[in-house]
Every structure is written in structure tokens, then in C-alpha cells.
Amino acid sequence: MELVNLHSHTGYVAHGRGTVQELVQAAVDAGLTTLGITEHNWLSDAIDPTHWVGMLQSNVERYLADIRSAREQFPQITLLAGMEMDYLGSTEDRQITDQDLAPFDYLLGSVHYLDGWPMYSRKVLDAWKDQEAVDAIWRRYFEVWCEAAAGKGPYTIMSHPDLVKKHGLYPSFNVEPLYRQAAEAAAAGGRMVEVNTSGTLYPCKQMFPAPELLAQFAHAGVPCTVGTDAHCSENVARHITQAYAYLYQAGYRQVSVPLPGGDRRSIDLEG
Question: Where are the beta strands (DSSP E) in the chain?
Fold first, then answer.
């Protein structure tokens, strides 16, 4: 069966390492047939003051050139040029034009920030101080995520849909209504979602999204792909076959792969 990874990073961001060439070589060695390289988009100094999260806008052309060069060097694998874009809602302070986005084959939409607050970071765990705070963060996360998924943003795939569980902190209430709203939003926005295998590395010890949320996406007819969220070449193929089984158990019978121009193709999953 084809192995695909539609979410990966390199040393173009400060929290990643390695080159595009090293990442692609590792993907070829692991037998992948498609690799999407999706470096984090540029962020403003106000949102990312140390430039730890996003790549520098001045490096975008070099990043794209490296992908073009890798396509020539590794013709045996399909390489897609992507970018992971943060949805910032009312705190958006960048001017990103259609021309800026035109070189990319597809875009991941991510929610790492809630009203400018870096919810994903371990450095802000003190804000999750009690159950009331955890409940509020979960509610706000899914509000923002649904805005991004159902809105007019340029995203092809909504990545790690329940990133809010990363720290292993869960709400006191029934999350099924939030999951249902998320599935409805993704379907309304015409988005794809991903099974992101990186969740197994975090305190939640579970892929993104949770099985119950993935089942809601399947029920709503939302196409799903797979990404390892590798930030180094060693993780480029991490748990892809397990993700396929995870998809099958949730009700999917195909894994979807975006194509340049907005189309997609499907790979049949084995039971």
C-alpha cells in the first residue's frame, strides 16, 4: 500500500532541524510515495517575537527552490510544496496576498493561538490552572477551530483538529457536541482533515484527532489524509501504517491526498 505524509517540517523553522534534501531522502528510504513539505508560515513579531514558530518570510523563495531541486533529485517520489498557516482570527496582523500563496500546492490550517495566546506551548501551562480554566480553553479552542474550518480561509486541510488535548488536560463536560460542530464546520467549509501521528509523543498519548472526533468526520463525509508532523527526517514515516488502521476503525475506507490545483486522489485502505 502507498505510504503518504502530508505534514512535515525542516530546519527552515527554529524548532525543526535538517534540510529539505535530508527529509526527502528519508522519505524515499522509508518507501513513501508522496511527501508534502509544509513549513510553518511566517508570523509577525507581535505573535512570534523570537521567530521560534514560523519561518522567515525572506526564506520562502529559498524553501520553494529547495523543494523544486529535490523534485529533480528524487523523481521516484511525489513532492508537494505546502505551508502550515496559523488561523489567528481577530488578532491577524499580517497582509498575506493571493500572490504570496500562489506557489504552494496546498495549505494546512492550524489553530495554535487563541486570541493571540499560544495555547499549544508548555510555557503557558500555568493558565490551565484548574478545571474551570480547562473547560473554558476547550470551548474557546473549538469555537476558533470551527471559525477557521467553516470560514473563507485558503486552507486545504485542517491539521491536528483537537490539538487542545496535547497537554493531556480534558474538560469536565461531554465533548460530543464540540466534535459534532467541528465535523459540521469542516464539511461546510469543504475542508479535508488529517490524522496527525505526532499526538503519540505528547502527554495526551493519542493521535490527533481522538477516535470519536475522527468518527464524526467520517460520518460527515469529510475527506481525511495522514501527516506525521515530522520536524526532523527521523520522523518522516512515523506511525503512518498505524494511522491507516486508525482511519479504518473510524469508518474511513480511503485516505485522501491533495493534488496541485485543488483536486485530490484517494488510496483504498485495507481492513
Answer: 3-5, 32-40, 78-86, 106-110, 113-114, 117-118, 157-158, 192-196, 224-227, 254-258, 264-268
